[in-house]
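Predict the assembly for these two chains.
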Amino acid sequence: MPVYGGKELEMKTSRRQFFGLAVGAAALTGLQVAPARAAKVKTRAKIVILGAGAAGTAMANRLDERLDGAEITLIDGRKQHWYQPGFTLIAAGLKPADYSVTQTPDWLPRSARLVPEYAAEIDPVGKKVITAGGASVEYDYLIVALGLKLDWDAIEGFSLDMVGKDGIGAVYAGPEYAAKTWAAMDTFTDEGGEGLFYRPATEMKCAGAPLKYTFITDDYARKKDTRDKMNITYAAHSKSFFGVPIVNEKVRMLFEDRGFETTFDHVLKAIDPGKKLATFSTPEGDTELPYDFTNVIPPQVAPDVIRNSDLPWHEGKWAAQGWLEVDKYNLQHVRYPEIFSVGDISGVPKGKTAASVKWQVPVVEDHLVAAIEGKEGTKLYNGYTSCPLITRIGRAMLIEFDYNNNLVPSFPGIVAPLEELWISWLMKEVALKATYNAMLRGKA
Amino acid sequence: MQDLTFETLIAVFEEIFGFWLFWAMVAVAVIVTLLYIYVLIRDRAVSWSKFLWAQLSMPFGAIAAVLFVQTMTNSSFADIGGPIDVFVLLGVAVAGAIGLAILVYTLESLVWPKTEEDLDEY
């Protein structure tokens, strides 16, 4: 049957409208066209990258793009590559443990060589690295991308085999442990009791993660309607919850809104799984807090191979933790200019996240390639760090900041950094791993 | 987000869906669009009866797209937290509506190339 009174109308403009729409859509996306890549720099430089995690892998791929003839060697004994930003999602029961696991060699450029051993010794004067197997690898330039060491032994009474049982979680420990943590948190949010959360007093990777997990635990309890069967306590290590003041104030408001109990200047030193008590050192001496579920986060320090070398800060607050003594703007070692750092190992005020790595890699690439050419690099790292701070399943705050504690939103006026938004959650859940993988391949 | 170039965006989408699935979806979208253009050019007119069915399918496309995104991302309407979230939701709905409408119109035109009413005009 005919529709509009038996007369079909002709839309002569339809095609023109269609094409107009397509052009408009392309214009609206506002995308820049990728800049043409500079010609490759010819060199025979021996470049050694210590560590093939996020920072080392991204660095290797970028250098492979920029250099022609360089000998790039990565040294790392771990076969698995871990997508660490995924640990929170695993520990929230949203992703399986293998969500974060890939194989290290799969990400590396063909031209690079992987030495599948841990580094045992660094000789910055002789410009060589000795591996655990005794091999000596010489370098012209060294990029230290070793990450950090989770010092589990520093928590008395704790061992990793406890994770997943008796209310003990450890999200940071790895994908399998994150999955076990989810099992423990799932039980806790069924049964209720005391939920106890905190962070170490050392520098740490993703300082937002301890807060996220507190929020997520609260969210599950609310969704299961068991929130009134529990107390949730956050014991801050200092006088604030987060190092960036404006973010700290927002977190304080959210904690109040969620009904968390809070206490300050508490640093975890021991747990007693039998009595379910956690011991904290405070300015007034040791104090104990009960738990039925807790997310153990240990002090975080530089790996032993760095702490046993001449590369860390010799004095100041980072000397004891062993972070590399580098310039905070170009990440070049202060005493050994042919050494650079990328990622968690850097002794700089901020930047222990994968997002920071994404910003640091182009800076180190610029200065390293410039050094090879006998020039000076120009790019600077401003301390950029990003943390999609999950405040419940389905919402997050996309917090980005720099060395000066300024908020530096990627989408100013569009994605508000201090608002709990669905779009920020979408970025965390869908786009982040993809962006991370693109970064690993040197493409983002 | 640093240097959001078209190349970066493509790399990100390849990672989200996997290389083959992403380019297969791009191919399907391109093919459907080309077929849509083809039937428009072939028929030299928009058939209102077909367009009506396409329009009627739009709400279903909108709802399906929103539910698909929410299911894939462990979220719900309760997670809408600010104006940008409303825009994203509407954007997803509009994309789903337009996508399904184009698909329905194209399929109709391909399966029933010319109705009697269409021919009446000539």
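The radius of gyration of chain B is 18 Å. Chain B has five helices and no strands.
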